[in-house]
Amino acid sequence: SSRCCAPSSAGPAMNCRAEVLEVSVEGRQVEEAMLAVLHTVLLHRSTGKFHYKKEGTYSIGTVGTQDVDCDFIDFAYVRVSSEELDRALRKAVGEFKDALRSSGSDGMGQISLEFYQKKKSRWPFSDECIPWELWTIKVNVVNLANEQERQICREKVGEKLCEKIINIVEVMNRHEYLPKMPTQSEVDNVFDTSLKDVQPYLYKISYQITDSLGTSVTTTMRRLIKDTLAL
Amino acid sequence: AMDTDLSSQDRKDLDKFIKFFALKTVQVIVQARLGEKICTRSSSSPTGSDWFNLAIKDIPEVTHEAKKALAGQLPAVGRSMCVEISLKTSEGDSMELEIWCLEMNEKCDKEIKVSYTVYNRLSLLLKSLLAITRVTPAYRLSRKQGHEYVILYRIYFGEVQLSGLGEGFQTVRVGTVGTPVGTITLSCAYRINLAFMSTRQFERTPPIMGIIIDHFVDRPYPSSSPMHPCNYRAGEDNGAVYPSVEDSQEVCTTSFSTSPPSQCVFTVTKAHFQTPPPVVTDTLKVPVMGLAFSHQLSSSRLSYQPAALGVGSADMGYPVLFAGGLNAAHPHQLIGPGKEGGVPPVPSQPAHGTQADQERMCTPLDGVHYSAATPSSSEDTETVSNSSEGKCGSPHDLLETIFIRKVGAFVNKPINQVTMANLDIPFAMFAPKNVELEDNDPMVNPPASPETESPLQGSLHSEGSSGSSTGNTHDDFVMVDFKPAFSKDDILPMDLGTFYREFQNPPQLSSLSIDIGAQSMAEDLDSLPEKLAVHEKNVKEFDAFVETLQ
């Protein structure tokens, strides 16, 4: 659903765990590296489609997976088999990459993947979005001088991404807070039910580009918690 | 551990989950070492056969081997299920690369709901396994197998044997799931000492046998189970047909309840199998196998396609007949690879010609064991696959892949030219670790599994975009900066960007400048007689020292 809801007005979000990953990549590696991380997170945060039946029971569809080889990084990762989800991520990552490139800054920025729950409010207030998990990937774009450096970079970034995948899995394995499985009337407050083959938890992606002074230059309109406090 | 708290239904369900979890674990690991990209389809309608709500194919041979190893038992304390991945060169040398261990320890979580939480966490653990199997070193090796080496697997049950991994092996934990009868842990120990491979890259002379022999120890367990190749070669004439797996006619129909957990409904039913007729047409209509079938169809690049359909065959007790579109007039004629025009030539692999007794090249998965179906079934095949979205390959590709021998993703590249140098980097500079004491070995004593907390207990403040990766002020959920798997950061702890900036323009070595070089050389030569005289004076000390060494 594209309806944007207001961030929680209750102050800093409680019970939202935040994980931060950092990578240094060459410009042409940005997209693949971001997709690898985002897809790995979403693999763990997507279920099959729910089908509600009588008496409050539901069954769950099947999630397929597929291998993706990177072209500019010596790396491969697994993603959920859902073209819609892949398109959505590619779109966000593409915007981030373009923003990084056109910022003319040192090439530093970050992209965030936030999982949230919706809490319905009465009119005239819009629904609240309460985040429960926030993944931030800090990116530093390096410029390389020659082909040999590029080859080394391919390998090193591949190794770094392996580490990130292990980090992500380690967080997932903690089995920490997950939203309660919703009833049929509540399912859209917890899951994104708009895709036809899989059902990720409600998420939003946003990014920031940092200029060389370390201040934020551009922000997308999907707000991060920090910005809420400033209002 | 008291079982009185666990209802008998829950206990039965739990045992079933663990059993199928073990089987799926093996499938994921072996499939990740086939040397090919795996692709399965999502399906919005639940099928009866997709355990843990994940589309993971069942290669019948692999299931067979796993069940043989388990012999009706389940992982328990001291009885772990291990999948050993090893590499075998074309000269017949072999080396263990990884051991994947599925273990059980005694830490019980009595409060956890079996049919709901345990099931979902097992599903999450399988997803983690899918991710982790792509990031250990053996993955990239397995993608390049085919010419100079192949990747083999072996399943055993009992005590974990890590000695074949060489010194300083690393472990990575995939995850844990607490259950009322113990905590399931899944981890991988992998060899890092692959130095011999990189010396082969750099030395143009034949490999130094001494170094290689270090790694190729005689198998200490001669009675261990046979090794199998991870990639399937349609070229051997192996007559083995795998018997139907008797008790696998259990199908998991998952039905969850959003009522309070105590009212969770989870049913595991036996599939309704009528006696299957030997034509594939009817296979498509069996509801249980229907969607499992359809997502087999969409996976195009796997040479075991016919066997993949055997996810039905294993369960239904007969080989699934595939619409080969060939020899349709002779429904029961066996089709072997190579009998069809257009099959790429199969390169010979001398290593596999000389079979050790222990190793079996099992090829039930080529066309040899599957008969062609009638033409009508090929239409059905088209229908099913066309109706699915986002397929990974066309049905046409699929029909051809039966007869194509896949020996690895990058068959055309001879191993030497491929970036074997890559292998040097992750491992060569890695300081070997001492083998951990058993007490510290996470695979023997896994760390305590986290308790299920209520969401209100964590006292977290999100700091949004601020903060660095470690050492930030987040309270309970700090990103642990443990020793990364492939990093050389012991020596130079800095991130890549800083590294490049710092070392972009190093000054030239002084010894490289000719004048200084010549000068110091002359100095060295002049001082030689002096040095020799000093050493001669001390010759007695040197002799004494040598004596102490003897």
TrEMBL record, chain A:
<dbReference type="GO" id="GO:0000045">
    <property type="term" value="P:autophagosome assembly"/>
</dbReference>
<dbReference type="GO" id="GO:0019901">
    <property type="term" value="F:protein kinase binding"/>
</dbReference>
<dbReference type="GO" id="GO:1990316">
    <property type="term" value="C:Atg1/ULK1 kinase complex"/>
</dbReference>
<comment type="similarity">
    <text>Belongs to the ATG101 family.</text>
</comment>
<dbReference type="Pfam" id="PF07855">
    <property type="entry name" value="ATG101"/>
</dbReference>
<dbReference type="InterPro" id="IPR012445">
    <property type="entry name" value="ATG101"/>
</dbReference>
<protein>
    <recommendedName>
        <fullName>Autophagy-related protein 101</fullName>
    </recommendedName>
</protein>
<keyword id="KW-0072">Autophagy</keyword>
<dbReference type="GO" id="GO:0000407">
    <property type="term" value="C:phagophore assembly site"/>
</dbReference>
TrEMBL record, chain B:
<feature type="compositionally biased region" description="Polar residues">
    <location>
        <begin position="373"/>
        <end position="389"/>
    </location>
</feature>
<dbReference type="InterPro" id="IPR040182">
    <property type="entry name" value="ATG13"/>
</dbReference>
<dbReference type="GO" id="GO:0034727">
    <property type="term" value="P:piecemeal microautophagy of the nucleus"/>
</dbReference>
<protein>
    <recommendedName>
        <fullName>Autophagy-related protein 13</fullName>
    </recommendedName>
</protein>
<dbReference type="GO" id="GO:0005829">
    <property type="term" value="C:cytosol"/>
</dbReference>
<keyword id="KW-0072">Autophagy</keyword>
<dbReference type="InterPro" id="IPR036570">
    <property type="entry name" value="HORMA_dom_sf"/>
</dbReference>
<dbReference type="GO" id="GO:0042127">
    <property type="term" value="P:regulation of cell population proliferation"/>
</dbReference>
<feature type="compositionally biased region" description="Low complexity">
    <location>
        <begin position="458"/>
        <end position="471"/>
    </location>
</feature>
<feature type="domain" description="Autophagy-related protein 13 N-terminal">
    <location>
        <begin position="96"/>
        <end position="196"/>
    </location>
</feature>
<keyword id="KW-0963">Cytoplasm</keyword>
<dbReference type="Pfam" id="PF10033">
    <property type="entry name" value="ATG13"/>
</dbReference>
<dbReference type="GO" id="GO:0000423">
    <property type="term" value="P:mitophagy"/>
</dbReference>
<dbReference type="GO" id="GO:1990316">
    <property type="term" value="C:Atg1/ULK1 kinase complex"/>
</dbReference>
<feature type="region of interest" description="Disordered">
    <location>
        <begin position="438"/>
        <end position="472"/>
    </location>
</feature>
<dbReference type="GO" id="GO:0010506">
    <property type="term" value="P:regulation of autophagy"/>
</dbReference>
<comment type="similarity">
    <text>Belongs to the ATG13 family. Metazoan subfamily.</text>
</comment>
<dbReference type="GO" id="GO:0034497">
    <property type="term" value="P:protein localization to phagophore assembly site"/>
</dbReference>
<dbReference type="GO" id="GO:0000407">
    <property type="term" value="C:phagophore assembly site"/>
</dbReference>
<dbReference type="InterPro" id="IPR018731">
    <property type="entry name" value="Atg13_N"/>
</dbReference>
<feature type="region of interest" description="Disordered">
    <location>
        <begin position="332"/>
        <end position="392"/>
    </location>
</feature>
